[in-house]
Design brief:
The chain is built from seven helices and 13 strands. It has about 240 residues and is of the alpha/beta class. The strands form two sheets. Strands 7, 8, 9, 10, 11, 12 and 13 form a seven-stranded parallel beta sheet that branches. Strands 1-4-5-6-3-2 form a six-stranded mixed beta sheet. Helix 2 (about 90-100) runs parallel beside helix 3 and helix 2 packs parallel to helix 7 (about 225-240). The model has no long low-confidence stretch (mean pLDDT about 95). The chain binds S-adenosylmethionine. S-adenosylmethionine binds near residues 199 and 221.
Length: about 240
């Protein structure tokens, strides 16, 4: 089944067996892909549902599809992975959002800590949400990762209790490889929270606080990786082991 070219339809635009594509998708379907009445396309709702639809009405103003069939969890991992990452400078965090989405994370928590060198700016959140949307469609996923608002590290700790496993990327003598940690668990975790530090890493107090709150330190090898590299490697390792 070809899911690779999919179009986003928010859940409230799906009524019974009809989907009404939002205006950005209408433009893309009409002017870029030159779709015609009777053509079949895939729509995804961002909640894990993919619909094959036949276009029944298409014009510059609207594109309406009739649902032919529905598939669930297309392109999705069985493991609910959240990446909490220290906010980075420039376009590095954009890149991380795109790659983490391609790799299948369900949500991303941008956090601020002692090592953060940038100021929070809500425009960046909106930008990351658009990047996640484009990456979801491009990678053949059906769930739209949620980009949370800026958190302080304390806020990340607060939400961490809801996860089966808490991991922090932190090089050090007490850090093990992820495969080793997963190998010791009786069952694969259903939900995992991954933490990656900002450019400056975590200060000793933060490391202590995180460990006290059940975060297991993981080493990604003997080289120091940039934060965005570490984030991608960590997510990829979880997906390889838990998919
Ligand atoms: N000077 C910082 C330090 O020593 O912690 C370097 C931070 S590193 C550039 C940014 C983040 O990437 C770290 O906080 C950590 O989460 C992750 N990271 C980078 N290389 C790593 C490695 N080899 N093992 C585990 N985590 C790593």
């Amino acid at each position: 089944v070809e899911h690779w070219e999919s179009h986003y339809v928010p859940p409230d635009r799906i009524v019974r067996d009809e989907v009404a594509f939002p205006s950005e998708e209408v433009r893309h379907l009409v002017f870029v892909l030159r779709k015609k009445k009777g053509d079949r396309v895939w729509a995804v709702d961002g909640l894990g549902n993919a619909y094959e639809v036949e276009l029944v009405r298409i014009s510059k103003k609207e594109a309406i599809g009739r649902i032919l069939r529905t598939e669930n969890n297309v392109g999705e991992s069985p493991t609910d992975v959240t990446l909490a990452a220290g906010v980075l400078k420039g376009e590095r965090f954009d890149w991380l959002v795109e790659k983490a989405t391609e790799l299948g994370v369900r949500s991303i928590v941008p956090f601020l800590s002692e090592g953060t060198v940038v100021r929070p700016n809500s425009q960046r959140i909106r930008r990351w949400r658009n990047i996640a949307l484009a990456a979801m469609k491009q990678s053949g996923r059906s769930m739209l990762p949620e980009i949370k608002d800026f958190h302080q590290l304390e806020g990340v700790i607060r939400i961490s209790a809801g996860f089966d496993l808490r991991i922090m990327a932190h090089p050090g003598p007490g850090s093990a490889a992820l495969s080793e940690i997963l190998g010791k668990l009786p069952d694969p975790p259903k939900s995992v929270l991954l933490l990656v530090g900002p450019e400056g890493g975590f200060v000793p107090n933060e490391v202590r606080l995180l460990e006290e709150n059940g975060f297991v330190p993981v080493s990604l090898g003997p080289r120091r990786l940039r934060s965005e590299t570490a984030g991608v490697v960590l997510v990829a390792q979880v997906m390889v082991n838990c998919e």
